[in-house]
Inverse folding.
C-alpha cells in the first residue's frame, strides 16, 4: 500500500516505522525537520518537509496515488483540514485522523472520516478500569 502520513510525532513516526517494516511505501510529512529524528536511521520511506495542508507538499508526498492517508499532527484543525483535502480533493480511499476534541470528533465521523479520539478512548478505558469489579451504584 501507498501510505501518506502527516505528522512525525510519536504516533506518526511509530506508524510510519511499523508500516515501512511491513514493506508498504510510506511518505511522512512534517513542518519541522527535527521531527524526522524520531524515525530509524535507515528509514526507507520518503520524508517531506512542509505542512500537511499545502497541496504542493501533499503531491510531493504522493497523495495522488495514496491508498491510505493519516493525519496525526498535534493540531486538530490541521488534521481536519488535511483529512478533508485527502478525502474530497484527492479521493484517497481510506482517510484516518486524530482529533482530541470529542465533540468535533463526532462531527467529522459523520462526514465519513475515520476519526480516532484519544481523549474519549482513554476516558473510556479509565472508566472501565474503575468499574471493573465495582458495580455501578446509584445513591438515593
Amino acid at each position: 500500500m501507498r501510505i501518506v502520513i502527516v505528522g512525525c510525532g510519536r504516533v506518526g513516526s511509530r506508524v510510519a516505522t511499523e508500516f515501512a517494516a511491513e514493506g508498504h511505501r510510506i511518505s511522512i510529512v512534517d513542518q519541522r525537520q527535527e521531527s524526522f529524528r524520531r524515525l530509524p536511521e535507515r528509514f526507507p520511506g520518503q520524508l517531506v518537509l512542509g505542512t500537511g495542508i499545502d497541496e504542493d507538499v501533499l503531491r510531493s508526498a504522493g497523495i495522488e496515488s495514496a491508498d491510505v492517508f493519516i493525519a496525526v499532527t498535534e493540531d486538530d484543525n490541521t488534521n481536519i483540514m488535511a483529512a478533508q483535502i485527502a478525502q474530497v480533493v484527492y479521493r484517497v480511499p481510506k482517510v484516518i485522523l486524530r482529533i482530541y476534541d470529542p465533540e468535533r470528533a463526532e462531527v467529522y465521523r459523520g462526514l465519513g472520516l475515520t476519526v480516532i479520539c484519544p481523549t474519549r478512548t482513554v476516558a473510556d478505558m479509565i472508566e472501565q478500569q474503575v468499574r471493573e469489579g465495582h458495580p455501578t451504584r446509584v445513591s438515593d
User: Anything to note?
Assistant: The chain has a mean pLDDT of 94. DSSP finds five helices and six strands in the chain. The first helix runs from residue 10 to 21. The radius of gyration is 17 Å.
